[in-house]
Amino acid sequence: KKRLKFCLVSFGILKTAPVHSYTPANAEPASRPPWVTDESFSQKFAPGKTTTTVAKHILPRGAPVPSPASTPAYPSPVSTSSQAPAVARGTFQRAERFPASSRTPLCGHCNSIIRGPFLVAMGRSWHPEEFNCAYCKTSLADMCFVEEQNSVYCERCYEQFFAPTCARCHTKIMGEVMHALRQTWHTSCFVCAACKKPFGNSLFHMEDGEPYCEKDYIALFSTKCHGCDFPVEAGDKFIEALGHTWHDTCFICAVCHVNLEGQPFYSKKDKPLCKKHAHAINV
């Protein structure tokens, strides 16, 4: 006679998944997802939770001292209707030249009337000779500049004193900055560990300290249902039986397809069977 195994099943419900997945240092075997093995997973990485860190930076000797908020180096005009749209920190800008005309704007630096050619930058007008780097005093009339701490700087001074460092290539970031994992990156440096494609604004998952895009994380690390071969995702009710993980709706008798959740069952050829079909020949 053929021997039949009589088995019991355990089941549960996955906790809410976060935007970024996480694997604790003392995680159980990789076959079990982190939201099962770590009870505090959903609290640590809840979608609406934010974290704030404060870092102390030591500026090089002779670095420009930040201007107090009450006394900016370049005062804003009285009217706010002419203010330029806000730009991201570290964005390169360039002043636009205008010839002398009947228009007599106020200089954003000295607040005096400009009666000749003038520059327009950051939504304000300037005497060309007064639109200079706040540190090295280089003229920015025909150069790119960066606005920082209510002052303007040339590219060289901004890079030396203010530009953040990329966590991957360890060089200064000039222009667009990616903030992730409490660090700063070049947008081209923060990439999936598997396919090497930049994430942009896409979601990513962490595994063994490396970021992965959604597609590669599912393919490499997700727990798949033995019945349908699709991932067991957060919020799915699952069952562990016969050495595999199943969706609760996929754990059924291989013959009559009756659901076996919470019921005693038999197995044959690694397939679950109900009591009625425990002796079925064609499985």
TrEMBL record:
GO terms for biological process: actin cytoskeleton organization; heart development; muscle structure development. It is found in: Cytoplasm. Residues 60-86 are annotated as: Disordered. Residues 105-163, 164-223, 224-283 form the LIM zinc-binding domain. Keywords: Cytoplasm, LIM domain, Metal-binding, Repeat, Signal, Zinc. Residues 1-21 form the signal peptide. Coiled coil: none annotated. Residues 70-82 have a biased composition (Low complexity). GO terms for cellular component: adherens junction; filamentous actin; stress fiber; Z disc. GO terms for molecular function: actin binding; metal ion binding; muscle alpha-actinin binding. This is LDB3 protein. It comes from Piaya cayana.
